């Protein structure tokens, strides 16, 4: 084509677009000309300075909404992907964030009581941590272990709970945590198997804790307040009498408390405030009493026979006829001896003395009370290391104070540890907190630190205030059955007795209230089928069946009778529960799951492992057989839930084990789609190859590496056009090139190639068949076709658009990085912002991608900014507030901005850009007809010059460069073709001159231009811009497809790095833990 042509004016004084002098072959370089964007040159009348109308194309937009005017490019998306302004309010209020209807955490939250950190977390934790052990066992532990080892015991237990509190704070702030405490957190973090096992352990621990509190309350009542109500005689002479009393009175108290709980929780809730006041008042009374008696007190005197401690007597002397004489000088015929030679030998050879029980801090006894005094069951409490003093040697012990349990460091750890439990009280109340993600960490850790400080300081104060013998006297027999910790309090010991009794009963009621509800929660999850009957509630909503089984289990624990035997069992179950909390936190941190975004930042996997190690250590220190039993129970429950009758497939050696594990895992993944919390991008890279069979854009692999941070599944695939039998060698070479590219970018994954006769069909087959079982890609990275404007061949964009359609049909997410060569490599570090332009709700993928990128060192220093657009009819202030709330619950830190798109008429530039786009499309359409039509014309001329009467087709056919015809035909063909070509050009020009842009195209271009203006204005300095990819045209007409590509070019114009994202139609991010 030697003829020159140009496009002249459109309308009166309209824009003139001169394509200049060009051959058809040069069209590639010029058909992408873009008019210069102008915003000035208008007068007040809306006319340009040259007098032409500024609005040559008018679209009536008076009746349209802001979204129809300004976001028409996304109109097809909004049919099934709601715009942000509609969704953000429900997202901020916990709706529409989890797609699975079966999950209990998908239900809307009930109205919350706006409890703060103090009332909602701190004080409940204080009430649950301070318990019966503090009041009736702390001085005994200090006296038995000594001040130094007692400090070690308490410090180790407090460290265990503190580290567990850190892990629990991380888990509890990783989304909205409904009631359920550790069971909910662990089951949602480690899965139903661990959750069910630990849930039952925690339930058992809570039930046994109720038994411990009941036994403790009975001990306070019977031993220190009303010993006369004993129904089996004088328990000071025989410990078994005391434990039988505990069993009887404990059973009575248990079922009274169960009756109270069954009536309703209202009384328990009100009584909790009373119990809390009693705890705090008692602790203050003890502290005041210690300093009030800083110089000691003569109110309580202990009687000693030699080094042996005796029970209280009215007259601590050896005089004949006195209380001690009548005890130690009894003959075989039960008569009282008159001579001391007939008395007990130890009584004969040792003198009697009295000592002050409360010596006071000023006495200097602290250092002498630091050493341990462990003993065995049946030994005598004595202030001596001589066996003659503390061993009875088969002689009668008379009224000497006897050790009733063999003690050691490990035994005391097991007895004390329950006094550190109760740290879950805050997380159990998360539904009642105004800001659970803030209150739970602060309140829980503050309560742990406060109680730890009280325990550690009080044990040191006890070591300096009490005589060592009084502390070793567990039940206070040497001072008339008085509670040692109550004796020192101010103003009166009854403050402590009444306060400790009420607080212990309150703690028992709390346990009997919480345990049945925990059992009901486990039953409702239906992970343990035989527990399903306990999910039923009464007409008043009370879990009576669960309460009944809880009472029965508690009854079995009460029949043990001895608090010192119940406490180690309780410690086992709590330690197992805390150990799994630490394990959950450590695994989530190391696995770096996308949903792991705790708002609490002061945690580390190493701290969780130290906490787990401490839990296991304390378990085996306390009782190795109880520890093994607890682990065995947890293992049995785990296997019962996980797999009933699992098949085992053993091959040869380690490889057989690996294959068996892989097969088992794949079968497990096949069960269904992953939960929203477990969704992570499993990437399929569609890599285009050069003529040398190497990846054209290696930065795609770099981007995938940064997005995955070495985690998850990545598959890189290329399609080679041809036949498999002839192209196997090329396929193998291409696969090696892909593998080298993966290794260079340190991407862990798989590579493959596919040979197909058609690139589009090959990609479609890959999308449909790639992966195995549940390990299928869910995200496709597709390169942008940079040369589409410079090629008249529609295949330049057809492969891209067909791939977009196929990915959407497969419900997979799509990532299209534009400007991929400008993306940073894995060795560099960028700083600045990652800007997200959230136009339509796509399941949260736009939120998740920058979070995942920021896990990589390249993007770590970038901050996130999230922009969304509002129209005049939207409440932009409320949208911004809701968006901040939504991001807060997602645990994502980002700046938020709502950009208001003002209504405006379509600009001249938009019209010109649309007109040029459609002119270009029309020219390409005409050019696609050129060669075939010309050959048809020539063939008609040849047939005309051979009128033989035969109707067979001419044997003369024309090659592309040099058609073989005779001279006459050639001459006529030349003249005719030139005339036809000129005529065709003239018709083409006429069409172009009279071309009127389609209204829908103008509106789509208006969206692209307007959005591009605000994006460039706000994000021109951003390191990466992430934006929703508009849906492709539903029709496959080349004109619509070419226009769509032009819209995307306009939308991203002037931006160096752009990531266009299209979600797969499901939620990929959630506010829940």
TrEMBL record:
Question: Mind telling me what this protein is named?
Answer: Solute carrier family 12 member 6
Please verify whether the record's keywords include Phosphoprotein. Answer: yes
A Gene Ontology annotation in the biological process aspect, one of them, is: potassium ion homeostasis
Q: Which UniProt keywords apply?
A: Cell membrane, Chloride, Glycoprotein, Ion transport, Membrane, Phosphoprotein, Potassium, Potassium transport, Symport, Transmembrane, Transmembrane helix, Transport
Q: Where is the signal peptide?
A: none
Per UniProt, the ranges with Basic and acidic residues bias are 944-962
GO CC annotations, alphabetized:
plasma membrane; synapse
Q: Pfam families under this entry?
A: AA_permease, SLC12
The residues that cross the membrane are 115-136, 148-177, 197-225, 246-267, 273-292, 401-425, 445-464, 544-563, 569-590, 602-619
Q: How does it sit in the membrane?
A: Multi-pass membrane protein
The organism's lineage?
A: Eukaryota, Metazoa, Ecdysozoa, Arthropoda, Crustacea
Q: Which organism is it from?
A: Scylla paramamosain
Q: Which reaction does it catalyse?
A: K(+)(in) + chloride(in) = K(+)(out) + chloride(out)
Sequence segments annotated as region (Disordered):
1-55, 944-984
Ranges where the Amino acid permease/ SLC12A domain occurs:
120-297, 391-684
**UniProt cross-references to Gene3D superfamilies, sorted A to Z:** Amino acid/polyamine transporter I
Subcellular location field? Cell membrane
| Similarity-based family | Belongs to the SLC12A transporter family. K/Cl co-transporter subfamily.
Q: Which GO terms describe its molecular function?
A: potassium:chloride symporter activity
Q: Where is the SLC12A transporter C-terminal domain?
A: 700-814, 830-1073
Coiled-coil residue windows: none
């Amino acid at each position: 084509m030697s003829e020159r042509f140009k496009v002249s004016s459109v309308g009166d004084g309209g824009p003139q677009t001169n394509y200049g002098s060009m051959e058809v072959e040069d069209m590639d370089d010029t058909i992408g000309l873009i008019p210069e964007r102008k915003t000035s040159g208008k007068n007040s009348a809306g006319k340009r300075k040259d007098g032409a109308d500024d609005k040559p194309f008018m679209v009536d937009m008076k009746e349209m909404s802001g979204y129809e005017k300004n976001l028409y490019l996304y109109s097809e998306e909004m049919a099934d992907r709601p715009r942000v302004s509609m969704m953000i309010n429900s997202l901020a209020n916990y709706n529409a964030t989890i797609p699975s209807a079966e999950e209990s955490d998908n239900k809307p939250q009930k109205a919350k009581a706006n409890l703060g950190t103090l009332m909602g977390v701190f004080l409940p934790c204080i009430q649950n941590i301070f318990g019966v052990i503090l009041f009736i066992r702390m001085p005994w532990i200090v006296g038995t272990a000594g001040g130094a080892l007692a400090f070690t015991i308490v410090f180790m237990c407090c460290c265990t709970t503190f580290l567990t509190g850190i892990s629990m704070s991380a888990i509890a702030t990783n989304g909205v945590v409904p009631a359920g405490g550790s069971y909910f957190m662990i089951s949602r973090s480690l899965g139903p198997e661990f959750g069910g096992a630990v849930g039952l352990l925690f339930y058992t621990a809570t039930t046994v804790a109720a038994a411990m509190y009941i036994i403790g309350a009975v001990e306070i009542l019977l031993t220190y307040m009303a010993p006369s109500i004993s129904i089996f005689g004088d328990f000071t002479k025989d410990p078994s009498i005391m434990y039988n009393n505990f069993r009887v009175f404990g059973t009575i108290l248990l079922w009274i408390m169960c009756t109270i709980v069954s009536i309703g929780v209202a009384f328990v809730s009100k009584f909790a405030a009373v119990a809390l006041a009693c705890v705090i008042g008692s602790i203050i009374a003890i502290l005041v009493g210690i300093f009030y008696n800083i110089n000691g007190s003569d109110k309580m005197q202990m009687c000693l026979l030699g080094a042996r401690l005796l029970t209280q007597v009215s007259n601590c002397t050896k005089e004949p006829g006195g209380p001690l004489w009548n005890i130690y000088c009894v003959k075989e015929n039960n008569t009282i001896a008159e001579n001391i030679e007939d008395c007990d030998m130890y009584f004969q050879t040792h003198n009697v003395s009295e000592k002050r029980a409360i010596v006071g801090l000023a006495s200097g006894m602290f250092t002498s009370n630091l050493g341990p005094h462990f003993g065995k069951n049946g030994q005598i409490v004595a202030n001596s290391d001589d066996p003659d003093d503390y061993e009875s040697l088969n002689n009668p012990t008379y009224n000497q104070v006897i050790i009733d349990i063999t003690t050691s460091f490990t035994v005391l750890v097991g007895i004390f540890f329950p006094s550190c439990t109760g740290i879950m009280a805050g997380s159990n109340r998360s539904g009642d907190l105004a800001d659970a993600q803030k209150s739970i960490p602060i309140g829980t850790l503050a309560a742990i630190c406060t109680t730890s400080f009280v325990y550690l300081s009080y044990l040191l104060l006890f070591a300096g205030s009490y005589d060592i013998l009084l502390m070793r006297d567990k039940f206070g027999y040497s001072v008339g059955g008085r509670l040692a910790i109550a004796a020192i309090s101010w103003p009166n010991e009854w403050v402590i007795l009444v306060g400790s009794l009420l607080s212990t009963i309150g703690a028992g009621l709390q346990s009997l209230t919480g345990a049945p509800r925990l059992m009901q929660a486990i039953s409702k999850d239906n992970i343990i089928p035989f527990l399903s009957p306990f999910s039923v509630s009464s007409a008043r909503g009370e879990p009576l069946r669960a309460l009944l089984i809880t009472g029965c289990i508690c009854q079995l624990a009460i029949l043990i009778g001895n608090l010192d035997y119940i406490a180690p069992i309780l410690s086992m179950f709590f330690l197992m529960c805390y150990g799994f909390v630490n394990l959950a936190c450590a695994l989530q941190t190391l696995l770096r799951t996308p949903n792991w975004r705790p708002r609490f930042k002061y945690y580390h996997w190493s701290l969780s492992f130290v906490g787990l190690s401490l839990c296991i250590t304390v378990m085996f220190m306390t009782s190795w057989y109880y520890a093994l039993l607890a682990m065995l129970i947890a293992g049995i429950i785990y296997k019962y839930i996980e797999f009933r009758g699992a098949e085992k497939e053993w091959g040869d050696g380690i490889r057989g084990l690996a294959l068996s594990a892989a097969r088992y895992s794949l079968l497990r993944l096949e069960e269904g789609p992953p939960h929203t919390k477990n969704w992570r991008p499993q990437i399929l890279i569609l890599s285009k190859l050069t003529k040398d069979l190497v990846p054209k854009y290696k930065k795609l692999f770099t981007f995938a590496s940064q997005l995955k941070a070495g985690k998850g599944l990545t598959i890189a695939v290329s399609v080679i056009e041809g036949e498999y039998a002839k192209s196997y060698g090329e396929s193998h070479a291409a696969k090696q090139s892909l593998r080298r590219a993966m290794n260079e970018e340190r991407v862990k994954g798989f590579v493959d190639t596919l040979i197909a006769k058609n690139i589009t069909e090959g990609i479609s087959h890959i999308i449909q068949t790639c992966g195995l079982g549940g390990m299928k890609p869910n995200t496709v990275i597709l390169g942008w076709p940079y040369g589409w404007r410079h090629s008249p061949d529609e295949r330049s964009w057809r492969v891209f658009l067909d791939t977009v359609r196929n990915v959407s049909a497969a419900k997979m997410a799509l990532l299209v990085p534009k400007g991929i060569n400008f993306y940073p490599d894995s060795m560099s570090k960028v700083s600045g912002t990652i800007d997200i332009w959230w136009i339509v709700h796509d399941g949260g993928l736009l939120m998740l991608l920058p979070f995942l990128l920021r896990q990589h060192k390249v993007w770590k220093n970038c901050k996130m900014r999230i922009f969304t657009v509002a129209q005049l009819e939207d409440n932009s202030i409320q949208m911004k507030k809701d968006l901040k709330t939504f991001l807060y619950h997602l645990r994502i830190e980002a700046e938020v901005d709502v950009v208001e798109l003002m209504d405006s008429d379509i600009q001249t530039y938009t019209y010109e850009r649309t007109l040029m786009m459609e002119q270009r499309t029309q020219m390409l359409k005409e050019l696609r007809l050129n060669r075939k039509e010309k050959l048809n014309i020539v063939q008609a001329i040849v047939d005309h010059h051979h009128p033989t009467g035969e109707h067979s087709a001419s044997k003369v056919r024309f090659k592309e460069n040099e058609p073989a015809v005779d001279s006459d035909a050639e001459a006529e063909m030349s003249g005719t073709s030139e005339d036809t070509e000129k005529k065709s050009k003239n018709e083409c020009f006429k069409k172009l001159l009279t071309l009127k842009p389609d209204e829908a195209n103008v509106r789509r271009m208006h969206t692209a231009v307007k959005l591009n203006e605000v994006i460039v204005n706000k994000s021109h300095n951003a390191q990466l811009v992430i934006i929703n990819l508009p849906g492709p045209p539903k029709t496959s007409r080349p004109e619509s497809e070419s226009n769509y590509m032009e819209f995307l070019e306009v939308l991203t114009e002037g931006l160096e790095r752009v990531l266009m994202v299209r979600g797969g139609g499901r939620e990929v991010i959630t506010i829940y833990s």
